[in-house]
Amino acid sequence: MHLIEPTEREADAAEATAIEIIGIEPRALADALATGVDHGGNPIEPFADPAGGWPLRCCLGDSRPGDEIAIIAWSPFPWRGPYAETGPVVVHARGCPGAETTDRLPDRLDLAPMTLRPYGIDRRIAYDRVRHVPAGGSLMRHVRELLDDPDVELVHGRNVTGGCYSFQARLARRPHSG
Ligand SMILES: [Zn+2]
C-alpha cells in the first residue's frame, strides 16, 4: 500500500484564508487498513471493483475497474464527542494514487447537489447554518462563506439523499513560529 503524505501544507498555511480540503486523513486510514478494523469495529473486507465508479474518500475521485476497494465505517472528525458520528465511506484498500490534502474541491464534487454541514467550535452541528447547494452552485464559494464565520470550525460536505460523508473543509492550520 502506498499513501502520499500532504506535502504543501506549510505553503498553504502561509495564507490565513487558505482552506484545507480532505476526504480521509491518510495516516489514520493507513492505520485502520493495517489493523484490518474500521471505526465501527468491523473487519475491513477489500474487494476488487469490477465496474468502477465508486466515490472514493481517500483521493476524492471515482474508482476504476480493477481497483481494490473497501466499504468501511469511518468517523472523519479531528476530535471526539457525541457529534463525531461514524458512517460508511468507500476507500482504496491498496494503491491509492492520490491521498492528500488539497486547497480546492475536485470539480466532480460540484456535479451533484451537496449538503454543507458546519460544525462549530463547540464541536456541535451548527444547524442554523446548514446549506443545501444545488449542482453547479459554486460549492467552494459556499464553503468559504461558512468558514468565514469564526464560530465555525469545519464544514462537512454530505450526500443530500443518504447524508453520507463526502469531504471536510477547514481553514488551513497556521505554522507554529518561535
Ligand atoms: Zn484513493
What's a concise summary of this model?
With 178 residues, this protein is α+β, with helices and mostly antiparallel strands.
Descriptors for this entry?
single chain; 178 residues; binds zinc ion
Textual characterization of the structure:
This protein is α+β, with helices and mostly antiparallel strands. The chain has 3 helices and 8 strands. The strands form 2 sheets. It has a 5-stranded antiparallel sheet with strand order 1-8-7-5-6. Strands 2-3-4 form a 3-stranded antiparallel sheet, with no helix packed on it. β7 and β8 (165-171) form a beta hairpin. It is globular. Residues 6-15 have low confidence and may be disordered. Bound molecules: zinc ion.
Order of helices and strands: HEHEEEEEHEE
Strand order of the largest sheet: 1-8-7-5-6
Could you give a short account of the major beta sheet?
5 strands, antiparallel
Distance between the termini: 37 Å
* Assembly state (oligomeric): single chain
Which residues form runs of ≥5 with pLDDT under 50?
6-15
Strand portion, in percent? 15-25%
Q: What is the strand tally?
A: 8
What's the number of domains? 2
Q: Class by helix and strand content?
A: alpha+beta
Total helical elements: 3
**Helix percentage:** 10-25%
Give the C-alpha Rg: 16 Å
Bound molecules: zinc ion
Mean pLDDT: 88
Shape: globular
